[in-house]
Write a structure and sequence with these properties.
2 copies of one chain form a homodimer.
Chain A (H helix, E strand, L loop, with lengths): L3 H29 L9 H4 L1 H19 L11 H33 L7 H25 L5 H37 L10 H24 L9 H9 L11 H4 L14 H18 L2
Chain lengths: 284, 284
């Protein structure tokens, strides 16, 4: 793998930033705010930032780059698709529970729902995320979709995934802004109390996490190599060390083709020209 | 050009969304708020959203896709670089004026500066944007940088540009959230007065504008073809019609190489393998 050390450094940074974001969210609600409960009060609302940051930011981010981890290249494509879909399903479930918490809190406190730009864009992101998951399941996991459809949908799937991820981060930053203005009164947000500095830092962590994930997800030389090549590696021991840098891609003429498994190698060869191009698009 | 009609439709949508965003920002401050002035009062603050949306969102978005307009492919690369840099310089100047307006307003009203997440991320985005402009000028416009350096910097330049653009949009959405909470008191933001619906819609327009620009900027088949090919086109009349769909890329073996002009064709051929790969990265 080309630039293996850089990849590892970025993966380590992403994991650290993601973990730190979750820890910061927990410290925010447990130390600075009313803790966590399911009682229709502020402690129920607090599940909203914790679950969104854990599921919709951190888990979604990891789901995006899971194909790029070189030690998974010896695993079957089907297993990796299941892990990708599974992580995204967990993220969606956590996001939905976090929405229930906030609607429940609003209803108990007689606060209107869905008035803010944060709520408009956030709910739209959850709906599109669910659609993306269903579409991805039908087209890429179930065995019925023709190869040409998969090739056509792949660049849209990749682009939508990254756009939704970016939108979720923007929505989280709006949510932090809203909550700090509403919650900090004496002292106010504008007087920069300790909580304001702490939660602003959480916002910066989330943004940098997003930036690292987007860089890793859009480097074409860090794409999972074609199925045939990863099987050869598996037979040869399956380890990926830095001395073999680049070889996993260089040996594979279809490295850029989309996430499609061919039942028939002869048919595959015919289609290569088209898929190479479609695969390039899927880099984003 | 492959998918010319779709490209035109998306360009039209981007222009419409961008213009609408600027009009919405103007209607917001002129109809719903205190208008525009330079008096240390709210009307001075109002320059902030108007100039950010005009310059830092709309002009920056157009600067990003300016190389992709097929009717500019007959223009020299140098001219296009000057237009790209010029539009980005205009965007930066408008962003800086908009920052002066908000600092001036805060100081006159004794409101602290730089306490909010919006201000932290927004100022960071302006600083990185300025650095990106200076770096781009030194590496890609001045004739001193070696070809290898240009090839190395290009994918970082493209990624940083798109990340800063996305961050600017996220920051604009945070700013809208802040302003609506602070400005709407009787009736409050939570009671969804007309202004709240109108400005939430502005936020959605900005986000969709960003989504369209990012799609256009990351399709590899809409990249400007290599210099040699566009010169051939120029000699043949320079028009690009749909019947020639795809030919501008298909004829050009270096279509994916980065924005580098080679003085020596023989040297260029030697370097092709490396640049083809670097060029792929530059798709984002």
């Amino acid at each position: 793998m080309e630039g293996y050390r850089l990849f590892l450094a970025l993966l380590g940074s992403a994991l650290l930033l993601g973990f730190l974001s979750v820890i910061f969210a927990l410290v925010w609600v447990l130390h600075y705010r009313e803790g966590l409960a399911w009682d229709g009060d502020a402690a129920e609302f607090n599940w909203h930032p914790v679950l969104i940051i854990t599921g919709f930011v951190f888990v979604q981010g990891i789901a995006i780059i899971v194909y790029r981890l070189p030690w998974t290249w010896k695993c079957s494509k089907l297993l990796m698709k299941l892990i990708h879909a599974g992580l995204n399903t967990i993220a969606l479930m956590l996001a939905i529970i976090s929405l229930v918490a906030v609607f429940d809190f609003h209803n108990a406190k007689k606060i209107p729902n869905m008035y803010s730009l944060h709520s408009w864009i956030g709910l739209t992101a959850v709906i599109f995320y669910a659609l993306q998951l269903v579409l991805g399941f039908v087209v890429f996991l179930l065995p019925f979709a023709p190869v040409s459809l998969r090739a056509m949908v792949m660049p849209i799937h990749v682009y939508s995934g990254l756009l939704i991820f970016g939108t979720v981060i923007a929505t989280a930053l709006m949510g932090i802004t809203e909550k700090l203005i509403f919650a900090l009164k004496l002292p106010a947000y504008s007087s920069s109390p300790e909580e304001a500095i702490f939660v602003n830092t959480l916002g910066v962590l989330i943004l940098v996490f997003g930036g690292v994930i987007l860089w890793m997800a859009t480097r074409p030389h860090w794409k999972r190599p074609c199925e045939q090549n990863s099987k050869t590696q598996q037979r040869n021991g399956g380890t990926l060390d830095e001395n073999k840098e680049g070889s996993t891609m260089a040996d594979c003429s279809n490295a850029n083709k989309p996430d499609v498994e061919f039942a028939n190698e002869a048919a595959a060869r015919k289609r290569n020209a088209k898929f190479d191009e479609a695969g390039q698009r899927s880099t984003m």
